[in-house]
Q: What sequence folds into this?
């Protein structure tokens, strides 16, 4: 079971992600979008969208730093273990709270506004609970670990080393199997969310508008109620 969960399952999730992206790009090019509903409602969107997107951005960056940068590297630049964990806890909590707040506003907006509700995708009822679950599990595991509920467990010498071993194609499954249950559930759900990306509106995170750089300017003309043609 340990090999299945922590040695095979992560690769299977990535294969589904890549395969789904390829299929989506080939057969649903015009559906590769976040399906914006700004025309239906914009006030709540202006608050909820930045909270969610910037919160999620810092959550991802925090995971990149925590999982990919070894403990020896931060120690080499003079960052003590205590300072690192204190900073990670503070920034991670704020980013996680912002993500949940933004997502809550967006879900409330979708339920409250009929036009936005009609623009709901079939996968949204699965996506939103999955996002909430992953973020809540991450915050819970981090808080419990910081409060000493897991003893002296350090995810940087456990989960992080397991995660980096995946890139070497030699997964050290024992490290992940020894992690506290809260961390294991969080990681399991996170990879499940990764596999869901190509089949939901989250696919737009892989959109890179590089052609906009060479795109010609779009000229807008003011609509004159009197019917006069604007000068110039």
A:
């Amino acid at each position: 079971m340990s090999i299945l969960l922590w040695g095979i399952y992560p690769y299977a999730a990535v294969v589904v992600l890549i395969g789904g992206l390829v299929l989506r790009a080939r057969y649903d090019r015009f559906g590769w979008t976040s399906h914006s509903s700004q025309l239906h409602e914009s006030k709540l969107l202006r608050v909820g969208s930045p909270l969610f997107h910037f919160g999620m951005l810092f959550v991802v960056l925090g995971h990149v730093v925590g999982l990919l940068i070894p403990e020896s590297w931060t120690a080499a630049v003079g960052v003590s273990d205590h300072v690192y964990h204190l900073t990670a806890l503070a920034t991670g909590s704020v980013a996680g709270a912002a993500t949940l707040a933004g997502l809550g506003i967006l879900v409330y907006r979708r339920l409250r506004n009929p036009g936005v509700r009609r623009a709901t995708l079939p996968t949204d009822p699965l996506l939103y609970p999955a996002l909430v679950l992953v973020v809540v599990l991450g915050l819970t595991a981090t808080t419990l670990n910081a409060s000493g509920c897991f003893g002296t467990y350090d995810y940087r010498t456990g989960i992080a080393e397991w995660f980096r071993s995946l890139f070497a194609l030699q997964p050290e499954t024992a490290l992940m199997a020894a992690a506290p249950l809260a961390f294991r559930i969080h990681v399991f759900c996170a990879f499940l969310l990764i596999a869901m990306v190509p089949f939901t509106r989250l696919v737009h995170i892989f959109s890179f508008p590089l052609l906009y750089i060479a795109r010609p300017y779009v000229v807008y003309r003011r609509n004159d109620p009197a019917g006069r043609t604007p000068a110039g």
Observations:
- DSSP finds nine helices and no strands in the chain.
- Residues 110 and 117 are 5 Å apart (CA to CA).
- The longest helix spans residues 81-112.
